[in-house]
């Protein structure tokens, strides 16, 4: 797998750490972090990651609002986005996928299998 830069936008520091471990240690990808929607949008614009992992449930600005704002910015509108959600219901996953996101990964996830899930979803 080639070197990739992934931005994780999640308000939980523990999730950021697990993603960093899983992607950096397992496959050598660079992992950027943001703890809120606005911070994530700013980092995505300045850092231009290869893809974004975006938590659905965050305070202030939720993941779907963040996703909509990412799609409205010329610098970020084509960056692939995968939602991270604790909402595992099939109907909720379908609703998320109708928003235009590239995929949905359910929490909790296995950090060592995360890269393989991303590769499968994005067909990398």
Automatic annotation (TrEMBL):
<keyword id="KW-0804">Transcription</keyword>
<dbReference type="InterPro" id="IPR011006">
    <property type="entry name" value="CheY-like_superfamily"/>
</dbReference>
<dbReference type="GO" id="GO:0000160">
    <property type="term" value="P:phosphorelay signal transduction system"/>
</dbReference>
<keyword id="KW-0805">Transcription regulation</keyword>
<dbReference type="InterPro" id="IPR001789">
    <property type="entry name" value="Sig_transdc_resp-reg_receiver"/>
</dbReference>
<keyword id="KW-0597">Phosphoprotein</keyword>
<feature type="domain" description="Response regulatory">
    <location>
        <begin position="5"/>
        <end position="122"/>
    </location>
</feature>
<protein>
    <submittedName>
        <fullName>Response regulator</fullName>
    </submittedName>
</protein>
<dbReference type="InterPro" id="IPR050595">
    <property type="entry name" value="Bact_response_regulator"/>
</dbReference>
<dbReference type="Pfam" id="PF00072">
    <property type="entry name" value="Response_reg"/>
</dbReference>
<keyword id="KW-0238">DNA-binding</keyword>
<feature type="modified residue" description="4-aspartylphosphate">
    <location>
        <position position="55"/>
    </location>
</feature>
<dbReference type="GO" id="GO:0003677">
    <property type="term" value="F:DNA binding"/>
</dbReference>
<keyword id="KW-0902">Two-component regulatory system</keyword>
């Amino acid at each position: 797998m080639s070197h990739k830069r992934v931005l994780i936008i999640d308000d939980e520091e523990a999730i950021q750490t697990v993603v960093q471990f899983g992607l950096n240690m397992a496959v050598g990808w660079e992992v950027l972090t943001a703890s809120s929607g606005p911070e994530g949008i700013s980092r995505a614009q300045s850092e231009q990651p290869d893809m974004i992992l975006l938590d659905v449930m965050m305070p202030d600005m939720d993941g779907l609002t963040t996703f909509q704002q990412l799609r409205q910015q010329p610098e970020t509108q084509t960056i692939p986005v995968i939602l991270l959600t604790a909402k595992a219901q099939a109907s909720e996953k379908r609703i998320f996928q109708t928003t235009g996101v590239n995929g949905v990964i359910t929490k909790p996830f296995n950090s060592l299998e995360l890269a393989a899930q991303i590769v499968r979803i994005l067909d990398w």
